[in-house]
CoA transferase subunit A (Lichenifustis flavocetrariae), 241 residues
Amino acid sequence: MSRKKVYPDAAAALEGVLFDGMTIMSGGFGLSGNPEHLIPALKASGVKDLTVISNNCGADGFGLWMLLDNGQIRKMISSYVGENKLFAELYLTGRLELELNPQGTLAERIRAGGAGIPAFYTKTGVGTVVAEGKPTEDFDGETYVRETWLKADLSIVKAWKGDSEGNLVYRKTARNFNPNMATAGRVTIAEVEEIVEPGTLDPDTIHTPGIYVDRIIQGKAYEKKIEQRTVRKRATAGETV
């Protein structure tokens, strides 16, 4: 097995990559598909003044919340910022910058960054604060707003399986933003639950080709926390909701 891309742990994989003021993309949706080992290693590194691109910023005590709580994040580029009291407090007191994006726009900006497309037009956000200060243009009688790509100095992603060449397979909803982010980082580091021999993965099942992945680690004891187990109150016997 080739070991050129395989690192023993998260701290080793991040060595020589980090610098203050950098932009980091972090995969995950809620707490699904989070780089559970790379985020604590970022905290331990002490790197600061970060711009972080992620759908959200973790939850109390977990995920990117750790970096937020440690004062390492200067700006978030996100889609969903609810249910995070620390995030709200820092933003409302002027200690955190926020660039809020519609979720589909955020995903497409990341995909565009990985594909080398500097800008695109979308109807989403036209006529709202999302479009303020941005160019608009009419196509077929409809107004569209111009959005620009997103790229990062470092992308950290979480996959289910990977081989030592960096080919990645994600599992179900834990895929979310991870594949697009893997393409949009100057350096991409992946953590996986299992590293297998090259040639073991069925080529038709690979979601991220190894050419996009620079370093890979195998994590252990993933918590895979769930933010909300239900979305409605459970009925008791004889009660309807």
About this structure: The longest helix spans residues 103-115. Helices lie at 10-14, 38-45, 65-69, 85-92, 103-115, 178-183.
